[in-house]
Design brief:
Elements: H1 13-31, H2 37-40, E1 50-52, E2 58-61, E3 71-74, E4 80-83, E5 90-93, E6 99-112, E7 115-129, E8 132-140, E9 145-147, E10 152-156, H3 164-170, E11 184-185, E12 193-195, H4 202-205, E13 242-247, H5 253-266, E14 270-277, H6 281-288, H7 292-299, E15 304-310, H8 314-325, E16 333-338, E17 342-345, E18 347-350, H9 369-383
Parallel strand pairs: 1-3, 2-4, 3-5, 4-6, 5-6, 6-7, 7-8, 7-9, 8-10, 9-11, 10-12
Antiparallel strand pairs: 13-15, 13-16, 14-15, 17-18
Helix pairs in contact: 6-7
């Protein structure tokens, strides 16, 4: 009778290392979970993009702190609020007696159920609903919309700080597209809206920030420094004579346009309105008539900048200024005369009291029923909330 047993043999040193290596590889495989681009983004805390339930406070966001995000302001009373940055959209709900500055907004600014507020706003779309006594210095690329609102008054945006020009660019807004006074009221009434006095001082409505943090932003409300050209909009013109000047796209388009504005307004002429728009070939034929063929090739370079000046002698003075200031420069421009109350657009066309020589650049898409209906649909969505 015998007894058999076996002793476990020690693995060879190389084999042990192979087993350990395989285990480590497996563990590493388990640890290396796949990473996606959205996993690498900074986490956004909604509280950083909201002012809610504040009373008698001065608050704000410095340049670079919003960086194109959405922002919400709600249930604030007796507050001064400053957003010194560009954003995607901003909604302002149930605010009372607040003074608000909003830097360039890529999309819409929507005031709902607010009263006794004074604001400075730059945006693509501006809307109000169920508001009372709003006073707004506005830059809006499309037709401002009000609904079920009373006592709303508008003035032209007038503001400067060093970062503002780049913020307009980041928000996709042109400094020359501002329809601040061309209001559409979905619920028409006698005292629903009007224009602020031409002599209104912006700091009387929205004072400069007083907190040490926000005072670091070097703000100026001097009209001469304003990023947005100050225009007359729908206010009464001084004269029956207007002049339209068109700058073609180039390296110096903005600088040249601002230079002509400074020259003409310093001589007492009104800047009625400005526009940056892609001009089509048919527009060029209508505007420049027999000279159109000279300018067709220039249209391919990009949008034109158009300026409308008003005042007795505006045509002669504008042409003289162009010859003096821009002689020998690289700028490409053409001055179109609109004399007395006649506008040469292929056929003579009489301008009524509410007409403008800027009409030749066909901004009718902003006034069309399709546009108004699309805004109506957007508002209806908010009404359902």
């Amino acid at each position: 009778m015998g007894c058999f047993f076996s002793r476990r043999r020690k693995p060879a040193q190389g084999g042990q290392q192979q087993q350990q290596g395989a285990g480590q590889d497996a563990a590493a495989g388990e640890q290396k979970a796949p990473q996606y681009s959205w996993d690498l983004r900074d986490k956004i805390d909604p509280k950083d993009y909201t002012f809610s339930g504040l009373k008698n406070e001065t608050v704000g966001r410095l340049p670079g702190k919003v960086a194109g995000q959405q922002f919400v302001i709600q249930d604030c009373e007796d507050c001064r609020i400053y957003i010194f940055d560009h954003s995607a959209t901003i909604t302002i709900d149930d605010c009372v007696n607040c003074q608000i500055f909003l830097g360039p907004v890529k999309g819409s600014v929507f005031f709902r159920d607010c009263k006794d507020c004074k604001c400075v706003v730059a945006c693509q779309q501006f809307r109000t609903r169920d508001c009372k006594k709003l006073e707004v210095f506005l830059c809006c690329a499309t037709q401002p919309i009000i609904e079920s609102s009373t006592g709303v008054k508008f003035g032209c945006f007038q503001y400067y700080y060093p970062e503002l020009a780049l913020q307009f660019k980041d928000a996709g807004l042109s400094i020359f597209n501002n329809t601040w006074s061309n209001i559409h009221d979905f619920t028409p009434g006698e005292n629903n809206w009007g224009l602020l006095p031409e002599t209104a001082v912006i700091e009387d409505y929205v004072p400069l920030p007083s907190s040490e943090e926000l005072k670091a932003v070097r703000v100026s409300t001097d009209a001469a420094k304003s990023i947005i050209p100050i225009t007359q909009g729908q206010r009464q013109k001084n004269s029956d004579e207007s002049c339209l000047t068109v700058f073609f796209a180039g390296d110096y388009t903005t600088a040249n346009a601002r230079k002509l504005i400074d020259e003409m307004t310093s001589k007492g002429f009104q800047l009625v309105q400005t526009k940056e728009v892609l001009m089509k070939e048919e527009d060029a034929h209508r505007v420049f008539q027999q000279s159109a063929l000279e300018f067709i090739s220039l249209l391919e370079k990009g949008p034109v900048v158009a300026l409308e000046f008003n005042g007795d002698g505006a045509v002669e003075q504008c042409q003289s200024t162009i010859n003096e200031v821009f002689s020998g420069t690289k700028s490409q421009l053409e001055s179109l005369a609109v004399e007395a109350s006649m506008c040469r657009l292929g056929m003579p066309q009489r301008l009524g009291a509410d007409s403008s020589c800027m009409d030749i650049l066909a901004s009718s898409d902003l006034q069309s029923e399709a546009y108004k209906n699309s805004v109506r649909a957007d508002l209806d969505k908010y009404l359902e909330k």
